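Friendly challenge for the regulars: who can give me the structure tokens for this chain first? No prize, just bragging rights.
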Amino acid sequence: MKKIITLIIAIIAITLSQAQGVYTLSVEINYDSIFSLDGRHFAVKQNGKWGVAKERKEVLPCIYEGIDALGDGVISVINQGKIGFVDTLGNTLLEPTYTIEKQANTEDKSQINVYDNGACLVEVEGKYQLIDKQNHRLIPQDYEIISRIGDAVAIKKNGKYGIANSKGQILLYPQYLDISILIESKLYSYKQISTSGLPVFGLINGKGEILTPAIYADFGIYNGKEATYIKAYEEDGRQALLNEEGKTIIPAIYQVTLPTILPDYFSISQNLEHGIIGKDSVIYVPPAYERVEIMQSTETFFLAHKENKTHIYNTSQEHLATITGTILDVVSNKKSDVYFVIEHNFSYGIQDTTGKWIIEPIYDEILSIIGDNVCFRKKDKWGVINMQNQEVIPFQYKAAKLSPSKKFLVLYDGKKDSKLLNEQGQIISFSETESILISNNYIEYKDKKAKRRLYENGTYQPDYIQNIKAGTNDILCIKDQEGWTYAQYPDFKPLTTKHYQNIGLFFKDRALVYQDNQLKEIDNKFQEQSVVISEPISNIEMQLTYIGLHSYTGAEYYIIKNKNKYGVITIKQ
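First reply, four minutes later:
Bragging rights claimed.
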């Protein structure tokens, strides 16, 4: 009998464990404001005061003027304009004592009043101190702390600069003329005097480690599209380009080296002539041109300009063509044929790599190239020409639009049937219309009967569907006469017969639905897994339609609102 009871208890325990689900209400919907400290601890405001909540409990009661930051399991709290420290269990480590210099950003550990590796930088009477969690001073008083640099601090003694770590140990004895920030928390320069008597600079990382000797005349910062670079100047004016780790990408060979719109290619200059080099130091365009630019379609091309001509190079270092006229775009089709969109005498046409006109420059405007078709305007009408210079769609439409995805376009006129042209070359006719709302993979328009949605593949939204939300993994959220449910994209085949007051998108094979005054979690088989909130939620349409998924340090969560009060739903990892 005892074994049976034990087995029953075990089964109940497993059932309860499974019922907990992926979505959990981690902060009660009871607060006037909420922001995340680390994706798990949340600063919460109630009656004008701040505290901290986690896992449906208040770690700190709402008694503080503010919550500043969390680092190393220590929360900075503000009271009467002073900073103090409390641990994540709610134990007071230090009553608010220290001056607030500026609000700390938990994503930037270079700020003061944030614990990092067991130490925190605080201000006392206008000077910095480095303290541990027991409020012990870590740096001797005869050293002046200048700033935090990553996991360390810059220190000064007798007019010279050095570095100490977060334990107070001297990593670099003060011996440099200066230490300056290049990239906050990552990269710093130090200054020395060379044997020739000139100032020279080297690099230090955020751990206080020397990355380069002091051999450069100066450093500069260049913020590229995807990364930050360091320009390292040599005494003769040549420039090397270094990455955020201080590693040399392009050696100091050229007078100017700069990032381009692509992370793998860099602009170089020598004697006022320009070219392109790769991060592998391969020369793609020799520095022999007045100006060089990059164009991308399905491939990448380099356009080098000199003496009113444009020279085309590809990423195989091949010189493809020399073009006269203004090149607006370079495109290639599935057969790898390369074409150039050319403006010539204020008109537009298409050339191949030999300079031959594929489509004569007789058109007044070009919208886009879709597959092997080109949409042009001739006078006040739009139409489509293929690469064989044949008319595919007559020039009789007053308007044309390109989708944000650039995978299809539409031509329309309120007096005749409209056209959709996709990448596959399909021409899909639909009703005449005066206006179109165009998205990445569909359009919305009104005909004489109703508002309709047409997808780029030619599929129409069925008439019984009243509303559609965005979808994930080919699953659409749709609303019909019975409520909200799920359907398959692109054929709109129902995935379940169940309907709800509202539904959310699937995430990790789970989704939130609202039904019978409860916010529930379902799996991808549309089976209920758990009840997340067992109370009515006002304005649930707004909340589940526009609910924002946040991510911080690997923790995903929703901030949810009900009756002007906020809470948090966390997604377990």
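The helical segments are 2-19, 540-545. DSSP finds two helices and 56 strands in the chain. Your move, everyone else.
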